[in-house]
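Problem 3 from the worked examples.
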Amino acid sequence: HCISSAASDVYKRQPVELVGTNVIGVLCFKDIVMLERACGSKKSHQLFRELLLHTAPIELHSYYHNKIYILSWFEKRQCRINSLFIHLPGVLCYLPNLKVDFFDLEINFATNLDYLKPLQDDYIGSKVRSIYINENKNQDVIEQLSVYTWNVKKLDLNNSFCSIDWLSVDILSRWKLEEICIYHGIITNPLILLIVQTCKELTSIELNCTIDDDVVITITQHCPKLETLLLKSRNITWTSLLALSERGLPLKELKMTRIPTLLHS
């Protein structure tokens, strides 16, 4: 009751938008639920519900992202979530009215074309920000996924379990990639050339896999907006450093497994 009364007093003295941002927006989910339970009357409870409608999007702890009962709480109260990491197939199919600013999707081996149907809704498909693929996928699934999710900014590939022979110009050109991460396996120059020539807005590239100098040189030639470059490979030499220094890229962050040295004869 004390919490409810305090919230009511703040609500009366400040605009709803300000109260929502400064009070509800900075609380964790557990505290928000406790605040709701503290409402001692129907009037204060209604006030709390109205407050939720105007608050800033809630930052939901990753532990809660796949908890149906928690997501249902947000759906019933029309309370917005800042971002939601979900697996396909997953809860996306069962909560059509959930208000989420951004979705981050992980695609697993069981995902087929039927599971992509919720993404046909523009409200959902247009809000997919990141896609994580860590298992072998059917070409048709990825092709259709790219049609529904045209605002994707980040692509994350685990090449140890995932063959990326499905990657094509058509798929890449539908997305608006600014970041790409590839883990494990071997990345050839033709593959990286396909990526950087198609994705002109790349600002971050992370390659935690086997590459050579040709791959790095190709990146320097085709990524004029690159700000972050992570290279975890023991096969690159001082030639890569020389190429990076000569191009004058707007790099803010460069990470390497080791610093190649120029050996004097």
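Problem 4, a separate protein:
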Amino acid sequence: MPRKSVPLRIDPAVYNAIAAWANQEMRSVNAQIEVMLRDNLRTAGRLPKDAGDLPKRGRPRKDPS
């Protein structure tokens, strides 16, 4: 299933804190936000069982053909 794009309005100080955290974990801000959302859904017992896995980090491998 294709990924959903969602515009997000966020306080600049909050964005900067997330960006710093993402940088420490070598993630994009987008990936860090998804990790945070999934962790909170899991903790609340609301993560859907059919939620796909997080995409693998880095660029996709080039097709060897």
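Solution to problem 4. The radius of gyration is 14 Å. The first helix runs from residue 12 to 24.
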